[in-house]
From TrEMBL:
Protein's name according to its UniProt entry: Uncharacterized protein
Species whose genome carries this gene: Adiantum capillus-veneris (Maidenhair fern)
GO molecular-function terms, A-Z: transmembrane transporter activity
Keywords: Membrane, Transmembrane, Transmembrane helix
Lineage start: Eukaryota, Viridiplantae, Streptophyta, Embryophyta, Tracheophyta
Keyword Transmembrane helix: yes
Domain of life, per lineage: Eukaryota
Location within or outside the cell: Membrane
Single GO cellular component term: membrane
Length: 569
């Protein structure tokens, strides 16, 4: 279990006396509430956005899908910005507050834009300036939402001392986030599917407004740590130092510079020393002390731990690529899956009709229910068979997530073929988004299977990137699954664009036309299944050659090299 080594301070960065107890569930409970509110607002804005852009602004399905995936890509990619600011400069508590305010600003501007659209003259085309204003508001909302989430999760983990307590918090964080999404899917999207778009977006903004005082009420009970410095600056220093000494022979482990600390701490605030690894030996030159070096100058010589930080990033790069490709599947939840559902009958009996956007409730419910099943039933069974503490390794867990995502795409392709057959047998085939004589509940299996894949892949990614980076990059590590999701959204946009360009050549309608009944989304799903199969092969090769991070024991360490070490020149 890692020992917390930062100096504990309160919400105003005042040192905390031993008699003053901060942290624990008192403060983190309010963070869970803020997370729930944030995800509720996220669902109310983004779950039905594709349908809003199609029905109100007249966009084609492919254009609307690309607009949404670009927004989601921006939102998840900015997670890295929030993590960076929280770790390096502002502190996590104040970083969360800053981006919650930006999130609220975006929601207010979005509500204004949609209200203006609803009061516009219906006899005239909607002005382009209004659409520009709408998308500006959406992007501000995306930046605020994406930046605060990983920092909030990190801050919540900071409230606890032991690994077990931290894990419990992260489990509840996952549950509360999904509860927020459930409320959005069953309540907010109801108004939006009835054409009350402004009301739905204003409700989302109101929920974010509620999250602010909820978060601030808990702030005095929270503890935090002083910012530990810029991790990207340390990475740059390693490459600069290695390039300065590129002509030198790769050094041996006992020739490398490392600070000594009886408790096993490194020169990086809050980080334990990392053991020297034999991979990427050319980077070791950065830690080679020479006659001209000054240990006080990190642009001349770096520590072994600093070099190993960079090696960690290089080692996890293949899994980041696999994570990006996996998230092209997740992007379909808020794009093509919804567009499919908009043409299908959502009635249960004569009175209840489930909106297409609310079908994601099956993914969310599956993730929430399958998580405790995995932890309390599946893991103990696997542990008896494998002897591994977690049942299977984190790499195996992520790999199974990829396998299950392939199954999801195969099922989606088969169901879409059935929907197309129903459309071709119906007189409504040439009426876009007309309700066809086929139940929307045929889509349930693909939503459920994607939910199971999330438990394996996304939670596995959080665990992997958190544990396989150094202590000084923990927030950055937690943000990487969201960055993968953002880049996956961009990849989905690119894939849809390329597919549409190729399949519409020669005047053809293409696979994803405005009228889906004349298209072939099933072919697109088969394409995704093949892409993920190739990703799985790539992933298995990378996992086979991967070396896990090793933290140096307290008594272990590379002996500090004297600047005038005999034999160095």
């Amino acid at each position: 279990m890692a020992v917390e080594v930062h100096e504990v301070v309160d919400w105003r960065f005042r040192q905390v006396s031993p008699k003053r107890r901060l942290g624990g569930w008192r403060g983190s409970f309010f963070m869970l509430g803020a997370a729930c509110c944030g995800y509720l607002a996220f669902g109310g804005i983004f779950f039905n956005l594709v349908l809003y852009l199609i029905r109100v602004w007249g966009e084609s399905p492919s254009t609307a899908a690309n607009d949404l995936t670009n927004l989601l890509g921006t939102m998840f990619f900015t997670a890295l910005i929030g993590a960076f600011l929280g770790d390096a400069y502002l502190g996590r508590l104040w970083t969360v507050l800053l981006f919650l305010l930006i999130y609220l600003l975006g929601c207010v501007l979005l509500g204004v834009a949609v209200t203006l659209q609803e009061h516009a003259d219906v006899t005239k085309p909607l002005p382009n300036g209004l659409k520009t204003f709408l998308f500006a508001a959406l992007y501000i909302t995306a930046v605020g939402n994406g930046s605060y989430e990983p920092v909030l999760a990190s801050l919540g983990g900071d409230q606890f001392e032991t690994t077990g307590e931290k894990t419990t918090f992260f489990n509840w964080f996952f549950v509360f986030c999904n509860v927020g999404q459930l409320v959005a899917l069953t309540f907010v999207t109801y108004f939006e599917n009835n054409g009350q778009w402004a009301l739905g977006f204003w409700i989302s903004g109101g929920i974010v407004l509620i999250s602010l005082p909820l978060y601030m009420v808990g702030a005095p009970f929270c503890r935090q740590f002083r910012p530990g410095g810029n991790p990207f600056l340390r990475i740059s220093q390693v490459f600069v130092c290695a390039l300065r000494k590129k002509a030198r022979v790769s050094p041996r482990g006992n020739d490398l510079y490392e600070v000594q600390d009886g408790g096993g701490l490194s020169a990086i605030p809050g980080s334990r020393r990392l053991s020297h690894s034999k991979q990427f030996r050319w980077l070791d030159r950065a830690a080679l002390a020479t006659n001209d070096d000054e240990k006080a100058n990190p642009w001349r010589v770096c520590t072994v731990t600093q070099v190993e930080e960079v090696k960690c990033l290089i080692r996890i790069a293949p899994f980041l690529i696999a994570g990006v490709l996996f998230n092209t599947i997740i992007a379909q939840l808020t794009t093509l899956f919804i567009e499919q559902g908009a043409t299908m009958d959502g009635h249960i009996g004569h009175h209840f009709n489930i909106p297409p956007g609310s079908m994601q409730v099956f993914t969310v419910l599956t993730s929430v229910l399958f998580t405790p099943f995995y932890d309390y039933i599946l893991v103990p069974l696997l542990r008896k068979r494998t002897g591994h503490e977690k049942g299977i390794t984190t790499l195996q867990r992520m790999g199974w997530g990829i396998v299950i995502s392939i199954i999801a795409m195969v099922v989606a392709a088969v169901v879409e073929k059935k929907r197309l057959n129903a459309a071709r047998a119906s007189p409504l085939i040439d009426v876009p988004f007309a309700v066809l004589p086929i139940s929307i509940y045929w889509l349930v299996p693909q939503y459920v299977i994607v939910g199971i894949s999330l438990v394996f892949a996304i939670v596995g990614q959080m665990d992997f990137f958190y544990t396989e980076l150094s202590d000084g990059m923990r927030s950055v590590g937690i943000s990487l699954p969201l960055v993968c999701r953002g880049l996956g959204s961009y990849a989905s946009t690119l894939l849809v664009t390329i597919t549409t360009h190729i399949t519409t050549s020669g005047g053809k309608l293409g696979w994803i036309p405005r009228n889906l009944n004349r298209g072939h989304i099933d072919y697109f799903y088969w394409l995704l299944a093949v892409l993920m199969a190739v990703t799985l092969v790539f992933y298995l090769i990378a996992a086979h050659f991967y070396s896990y991070l090793r933290v140096a024991p307290a008594k272990e360490g590379v002996e500090e090299v004297e600047l005038m070490r005999k034999g160095s020149s």
